[in-house]
What does this fold into?
Amino acid sequence: MTKPVHVIGGGLAGSEAAWQIASAGVPVVLHEMRPVRPTDAHHTDLFAELVCSNSFRSDDWRYNAVGLLHAEMRRCDSLIMACGDAHQVPAGGALAVDRDGFAQAVTDRLSNHPLVTIQREEVAGLPPVDWDSVIVATGPLTSPALADAVLALTGEDSLSFFDAIAPIVHLESIDMDIAWRQSRYDKEGPGGDAAAYINCPMDRDQYEAFIDALLAGPKAEFKDWENVPYFDGCLPIEVMAERGRETLRHGPMKPVGLTNPRNPTVKAHAIVQLRQDNALGTLWNMVGFQTKLKHGAQTDVFRMIPGLQNAQFARLGGLHRNTFLNSPRLLDGRLRLKADPRLRFAGQVTGVEGYVESAAMGLVTGRLAAAERLGRPLDAPPPTTALGALVGHITGGHLDGPGARFQPMNINYGLLPPMETPRKTADGAKIPMKERGRAKKALMSERALADLEAWAAAPQPIAAE
Ligand SMILES: Cc1cc2nc3c(=O)[nH]c(=O)nc-3n(C[C@H](O)[C@H](O)[C@H](O)COP(=O)(O)OP(=O)(O)OC[C@H]3O[C@@H](n4cnc5c(N)ncnc54)[C@H](O)[C@@H]3O)c2cc1C
It folds into this structure.
């Protein structure tokens, strides 16, 4: 009898991982602590409970990165997608689900699978040594006993308990006729680059209007149990503005050491800086701009910044309770803990964000663990796929170095290797300028699905041998 793979956590990621392992013909033990030990966000003892919204977001595979992720997961026989499709409710172009029907279906499919054993218990420390293949998928509310054990194994700065997220902007949406590249005092970074930042200048009137909008904008409230502390280094910008109208000009918006090449004799009153956020150079984060402004207000307020008037946001800012690993440092390319490779991590705890992304990482780790057990080790999906791009983000795509902090991310096209923006269709017709961005997304989505094929076909079930 093949030894089982152990999956800890029966949420979005753990349920998908267990399904993938069992589908490959490998036995799996799924350990879920609910209802023995509840969390602050779950209300049922069902697997894959959706703790907040009931939406899996856009289902448009051609023009939307999360829709592409749906398509890739369907191609890989995803349990989460199958149950989502079976229990969908009307939501326009989005995939929204009847949350109870969905979670019940996931629970039933796993409970009825002959290769899945379910144990309702908290794994309150590192797994016993005789569990030689384990997937930890315990989510943003990982129980403290397990989080402490991981921390003890991996070191002090290995786990974060809060997101303090600054918005991230797609480079191609920044107006470089207004913004310019320069590092403060032209200081060279370790790579010898003295123009590492993108700078957006403001005059006094623009700054004052921006502060007014920031103070007036609606803010999201913390949940009672979140009890998020403000660390000095990551105060939300609206809290800084509340402390005084000039505070931001002396903090993240200070205009010193920078000269606008288009207006070199006039000092900007304030400057917003963006720093490269991924190795591909397609995504840039707004330095020091973590915020609790509601998402709708963020787009309006941040588009007041000169140079960002047409900004497309890959991610908006936030501050939440969230347990996640410093994955780029701790995990290898197959999502194994370098310090103890029998442990894989999956889901939100790896630093992806969202139901679908969490399930996607469950899918990948489940397949990798099953393939390893079958003696046919598998690499992560190609980086040109949405699945592979997420693995890339958490294991290496994010830039390291002073000031850069790994932060969770939703799937977006900026995580995939870029392609040339097409000017003509396959039959030679000119593509109008305003449709070229969409045409590029379609090309990237088509490439992703084609490149996924070989990976999706492995590992073969034992029975097929
Ligand atoms: C309050 C809140 C609201 C959110 N809202 C949304 C949203 O609207 N849309 C969205 O896309 N994403 C949302 N997210 C983010 C994220 O998508 C979800 O948290 C998602 O459920 C993550 O999937 P997961 O499988 O990683 O973790 P989970 O789905 O949380 O699953 C983890 C499981 O592990 C179990 N567990 C924890 N510790 C142990 C242990 N030691 N032993 C055994 N079992 C354990 C838990 O009981 C849980 O069932 C939200 C997150 C939070 C915290």
